[in-house]
Design brief:
The protein has helices at residues 3-39, 47-81, 99-158, 161-168. With 169 residues, the protein is mainly α. It has one domain. Helix 1 (3-39) runs antiparallel to helix 2 (47-81) and helix 1 (3-39) runs parallel beside helix 3.
Length: 169
């Protein structure tokens, strides 16, 4: 095995791992946002400790996302500029006209597109669930309003002058 082939065997999994890491960190942000939404409904007595944990998680996620992006840029740059010392990795042949580096970039791009598609589908699912929950809440509020109005009308009727005088007789 040549040095260039060994270098490629190490870099390809690293490049794919960096793409996967970026995808995972991007998927974590909507989950943290969902936690923030759920935090609004929590009792005040336990809210501060969870707010601190969520804030810490957001800071960590931002830091890890930046690190993974920097790593990915470094690996991509190294892959584009060639292997060790700027030499291209492996010769191109008729069987592999794009070269191993191009194949790696295409695989990484495909993985990135698939992850983006999954994130979009998940975001769409969350949006639909949120819309459904909002409709349920509005329906409940409408029923509660009707109950309050009916109760108010009943109380007004019970304490109206005509009802009170009838009861006194």
């Amino acid at each position: 095995m040549e040095l260039d082939e060994a270098d490629e065997m190490v870099r390809t999994p690293l490049l794919l791992s960096s793409v996967h890491l970026q995808s995972q960190s991007s998927q974590s942000f909507p989950q943290v946002s969902q936690m923030e939404i759920e935090l609004q409904g929590m009792p005040q007595s336990i809210k501060p400790q969870y707010q601190a944990r969520i804030k810490s998680a957001k800071i960590d996620l931002t830091r890890f996302k930046k690190l993974s992006k920097d790593l990915h840029v470094q690996l991509t740059r190294s892959d584009l500029l060639g292997g060790v010392g700027g030499r291209p990795i492996g010769p191109s042949s008729a069987d592999d006209p794009y070269g191993t580096g191009d194949r790696t970039r295409l695989l990484a791009g495909t993985t990135l597109l698939e992850d983006g598609t999954k994130r979009l589908q998940q975001s769409q699912r969350i949006a639909l669930e949120t819309e459904e929950q909002g409709a349920d809440i509005l329906s409940n509020l409408r029923r509660q309003r009707e109950q309050i109005e009916n109760t108010r009308d009943t109380v007004r009727y019970c304490f109206s002058p005509t009802t009170v005088s009838r009861l006194a007789d």
